[in-house]
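S.,

As promised, the alpha-D-galactopyranose run. Input:
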Amino acid sequence: MPNPPPTRLASSLFTATYASRAAVGASAPGRVNLIGEHTDYNGGPVLPFALPRKTVVFAAAAPHWEAVSSRNGAPTRFVPEDAPVGVWTDYLSGVVRVLRELRAAPAGASIAVASSVPAGTGLSSSAALTVAAARALSRLGGRQLSRDAVAEVAYRAESEVVGVRCGRMDQAIATEGRSGQALLYETGSGTMVQVPFPLRVLMVETGVTRHLGAVDYNLRREECEEALDAVREAGIAAEALAQVPGHALTTLARSLPSAHFRRVRHVVTETARTREAAAALAAGDYLRLGALLFDGHASIREDFESSCVEADLLVDSALAYEAWGARLTGAGWGGAVLVLAPPDLMARLKSGLVRDFRAAFGRAPVLWETRAAGGLKTEPVP
Ligand code: GLA
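Predicted complex:
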């Protein structure tokens, strides 16, 4: 964790930059998805938990839009109606534009941001930013939006304005996360159930930075849409891929092109695994939960083709050291692997993973332990 914590950092950054006090503050966490990958835009379930690492936003009314971040150097002015240009303030522009539609945006603001969510690690630093900004800026605009409404603003900012065609998982857990709980979120029906999740989790960063805006994610989403059309043409009634029954896979294997079939098989089997994982977690059956995580990784490696060699090595080595389970979390193509293991195995596991990773890639991965923490919060202005 960076020192000082992000709340103090954001408030001192605000004061140092604007020589005045902030009027509102909010924070939202990053997340780890236990299982349910690439199911959220296919009508399936996800099982994420919120991290203790969070993004904090402080703001005050101003005649223009200006933002500073502890990670991005000097304060910059931005114009919310400008097209996104691949900079971090695009996310703020997105939030402002959606808030304007709801008549919940202030006329302008000075904004300071600090975060302890590592960027580019598949831990959803972008939803942490948009959710915290949506809460802080709507308060500044004189509105008290519900958690659901904040999540929706953040989702629309990212998908409609920034242009990443994400699902709704990250914004949901950033708003709804609770300490010691994972969230089973059925994206098809909108149902949310908190599932006790008392375990400590080992996170291992692959050091491979993924860019969610990059083509891969949107391409997979298109493939899923094409696959759904093909599934319907094959006579299977489904509103989303997650509704395709498991027994239909044998027929689909014959009628769909190989890549499309494998995308469908991932979504169908991942949907079943995620529901079973929530049940195993609720029953305290960590061995079963872990086995489902290993299976989930094999599925993103072979069927969804969204893994990377660094993650594959870590998962294989976690299996060899008898972890309960491990998988690459988040959108994929890099980011971090989560590992669940009995507490008395942790020390041996960590040194084994570091040794194997170093032998293969000539560098040590960044490791940290974490647990499920709370979601969106209004931060008192110091
Ligand atoms: C990203 C997206 C989510 C989800 C995951 C993959 O984190 O923002 O909506 O699709 O990838 O499970």
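The two ends are 21 Å apart (CA to CA). The chain is about 40% helix and 20% strand.

- D.
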